[in-house]
Amino acid sequence: MAINIDEYSVIVRPLITEQGVHFANTKGAYSFEVNKKANKVQIKNAVEKMYGVKVQKVRTANRKGKVRHRGRAIGSTPSWKKAVVFLEPDYHIDLF
């Protein structure tokens, strides 16, 4: 069951890490934090519309929040969803 989400609210932010930059340069794979309710088709359509590229495949992972302590209080960071988007060989995204 697909939930109706606007293309601009699917992608929360791009993830800029050393490993992500390496994968972008070698494999054409870009990482994004996405809405937890978005599916792969919605992520693919959002990336294609926002960046003007052709997406080959999408991989997703649900990341659980970490437990944090502040004195006696115990809490956790929020859970989030990560998407790795693989582009067609002729395309790239300039994130810098």
What does the model show?
This protein is of the alpha+beta class and 96 residues long. The chain has a single domain, classed as Alpha-Beta Plaits (2-Layer Sandwich). Helix content is 26%, strand content 36%. The chain contains three helices and six strands. A four-stranded antiparallel sheet has the order 1-2-6-3. It has a two-stranded antiparallel sheet with strand order 4-5. Strand 4 (67-70) and strand 5 (73-76) form a beta hairpin. The protein starts with 6 loop residues before the first helix and ends in a 9-residue tail after the last strand. The model has no long low-confidence stretch (mean pLDDT 93).
Sum up the structure in keywords.
alpha+beta, Alpha-Beta Plaits, 4-stranded antiparallel sheet, 3 helices, globular
Write down the overall geometry: globular
Using the coordinates shown, work out and report the CATH topology: Alpha-Beta Plaits
Provide the CATH superfamily.
RRM (RNA recognition motif) domain
| Helix fraction by DSSP (H/I, runs of at least 4) | 25-40%
Q: Main sheet? A: 4 strands, antiparallel
